């Protein structure tokens, strides 16, 4: 599902303008990398796409209503949550099911599929807090994937990971885009990841370069 931004600006309380007149199309079935230095507006743009922040002016058009799946920056998720990998991925089904309802057989099949696609079936009973950074990030991506959203947003998913774990995640994002037709958008500092993406949007001080 392509997403189109037209002349989007975004402000924070106090009047700080974080994005200026952004127009872009994020194609479906492809990976778009958001690059740019710290403070350039990458997270702000992801928050707009996620709907957690509203544009001050301009429009964001989705082809049809959708609830984006969002993997927030690592620092935003506490390490010590007493959850197993499987429980964490299962939470991805709550948005659709409501956590007070029993999961269906189909929900459990989605969870199994997501664990397998991220290569973490063997970890499913491990505690989130006991995992390596790469394993933990794969778990959070599996959780987002379990939402079966046509729009997958990730904020620096490979920050602080070693090169092998980075490559594994980059490859996974490419597969999610090409195999599922998902619109994948991720912020990154790594040139190699930006190069592996189908499209790159580079921000500088809130402007698209
Ligand atoms: P990036 O993700 O590229 O590092 P951000 O989108 O986080 O950039 O930030 C863009 C700009 O908006 C920066 O100048 C930052 O200081 C500012 N900013 C980000 N979040 C807030 C906030 N909650 N309140 C006020 N200003 C913010
Ligand atoms: Mg950021």
UniProtKB/TrEMBL annotation:
The keyword Hydrolase does not apply. Pfam families: ABC_tran. Gene3D superfamilies: P-loop containing nucleotide triphosphate hydrolases. SMART domains: AAA. It comes from the Bacteria. Transmembrane segments: none annotated. Belongs to the ABC transporter superfamily. This is Zinc ABC transporter ATP-binding protein AztA. It comes from Streptomyces carpaticus.
């Amino acid at each position: 599902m392509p997403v189109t931004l037209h002349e989007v600006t975004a402000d924070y309380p106090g009047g700080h303008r974080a994005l200026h007149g952004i127009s872009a199309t994020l194609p479906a079935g492809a990976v778009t990398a958001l690059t740019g230095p710290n403070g350039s507006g990458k997270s702000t743009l992801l928050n707009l796409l996620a709907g957690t922040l509203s544009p001050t002016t301009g429009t964001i058009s989705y082809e049809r209503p959708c609830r984006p799946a969002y993997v927030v920056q690592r620092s935003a998720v506490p390490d010590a949550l007493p959850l197993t990998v499987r429980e964490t991925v299962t939470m991805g089904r709550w948005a659709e099911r409501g956590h007070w309802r029993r999961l269906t057989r189909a929900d459990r099949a989605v969870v199994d599929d997501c664990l397998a696609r991220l290569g973490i079936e063997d970890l499913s009973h491990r505690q989130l807090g006991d995992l390596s950074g790469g394993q933990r990030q794969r778990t959070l991506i599996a959780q987002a994937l379990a939402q079966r959203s046509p729009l997958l947003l990730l904020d620096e998913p490979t920050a602080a990971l070693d090169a092998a774990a980075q490559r594994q995640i980059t490859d996974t994002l490419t597969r999610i885009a090409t195999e599922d037709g998902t619109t994948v958008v991720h912020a990154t500092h790594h040139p190699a990841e930006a190069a592996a993406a189908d499209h790159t949007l580079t921000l500088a001080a809130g402007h698209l370069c």
